[in-house]
């Protein structure tokens, strides 16, 4: 566990788009559950939101994971009631501290946010 591991107080499902055989000789893309990981949700600061706006990115939520967690750009995080797209992965300047995933809300599930 990383030095920040004690702060990872939630579990979130990680899903990845994967190409699978469609049974007719072709392939189709589908979302496949990769793992349920320990994480921490944080709200982006006003400065982070401004930076995202200036670069044309959307930033709704920030999630932190252990540094070795396999979370990639394009993955989906699925906390209860929401689907988030990972738009950017940030590695800390100090090794073995955390892995940060900047995310945008794709859709609420069951009409909730």
Topology:
Blueprint: E1 10-21, E2 27-42, H1 46-54, E3 61-65, E4 76-78, E5 82-90, E6 99-108
Antiparallel strand pairs: 1-2, 1-4, 2-3, 3-6, 4-5, 5-6
What features would you describe in this structure?
With 113 residues, this protein is mostly beta strands. The model has no long low-confidence stretch (mean pLDDT 85). It has a single domain (5-108), classed as Bacteriophage SPP1 head-tail adaptor protein (Thrombin, subunit H). The chain has one helix at 46-54, and strands at residues 10-21, 27-42, 61-65, 76-78, 82-90, 99-108. It has a 6-stranded antiparallel beta barrel. The chain is globular, with a radius of gyration of 15 Å. Helix content is 8%, strand content 49%. Strand 1 (10-21) and strand 2 form a beta hairpin. The protein starts with 9 loop residues before the first strand and ends in a 5-residue tail after the last strand. The chain is built from 1 helix and 6 strands, in the order ββαββββ. Pfam families: Phage_HCP (PF05521). Residues 35-51 have a biased composition (Basic and acidic residues). InterPro entries: Phage_SPP1_head-tail_adaptor, SSP1_head-tail_sf.
């Amino acid at each position: 566990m990383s030095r920040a591991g004690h702060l990872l107080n939630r579990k979130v499902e990680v899903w990845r788009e994967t190409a699978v055989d469609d049974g007719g000789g072709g392939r189709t893309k589908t979302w496949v559950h990769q793992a349920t990981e320990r994480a921490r949700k944080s709200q982006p600061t006003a400065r982070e939101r401004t930076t995202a706006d200036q670069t044309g990115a959307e930033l709704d939520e920030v999630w932190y994971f252990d540094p070795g967690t396999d979370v990639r750009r394009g993955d989906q995080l699925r906390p209860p009631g929401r689907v988030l797209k990972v738009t950017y992965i940030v590695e800390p300047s100090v090794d073995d501290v955390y892995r940060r995933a900047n995310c945008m809300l794709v859709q609420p599930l069951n009409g909730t946010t």
